Amino acid sequence: MSFLFVALGAAVGAPLRYLVDRAVQGRHDSLFPWGTFAVNVIGSLILGVLAGAGPVMPGPVMQLLGTGFCGALTTYSTFGFETIRLIEDRAHFYAVANVVAGIVAGLGAAFIGVSVAEAIWT
Question: Where do the structural domains in the chain lie, given as residue ranges?
Answer without folding.
Answer: 2-121
